[in-house]
Specification:
With about 140 residues, this protein is α+β, with helices and mostly antiparallel strands. It is built from three helices and six strands. The protein is about 30% helix and about 40% strand. It has a five-stranded mixed β-barrel with strand order 1-2-3-5-4. Keywords: Signal.
Amino acid sequence: MRNLNRKTFSRMALAGLGVAGALIFTPHAHAHHPFAAEYSRQHPVTLSGVVTKVAWTNPHIHLYMNVRSAESGKVSNWTVEMGAPHLLQRRGWRRNTLTTGTQITVDGFLARNGSSRINAQSVTLMGGVKLDAGSSQLDRNTDN
């Protein structure tokens, strides 16, 4: 009887560790997304505007910019997704490369859901310096 309880306890403990491990690691597995899940290569866009915020966070750097519509003159705030911080740092980016108030032009791809979001392919500064934005669009496994 004692061995049965010990075996049962061991199985329950092992199952509990498995469940706990799945709960801990599942959010991280789903936190990152392929390019085609959110953005479309069929809808390239170029936006020019003023940086309002830069967030150096994992898994992607996000910058926010005010863009004035050529048709209506209305200003809207766009979210621009770029590559991972470590990737951009290897490509020469620093936390102070873009600051609030900087005028930029971004080439990228529109969000599939129609929101004011793009995945940046490059960022061009006012002086003409063009920087690679570390876009996840390099995922060539999809045609989207």
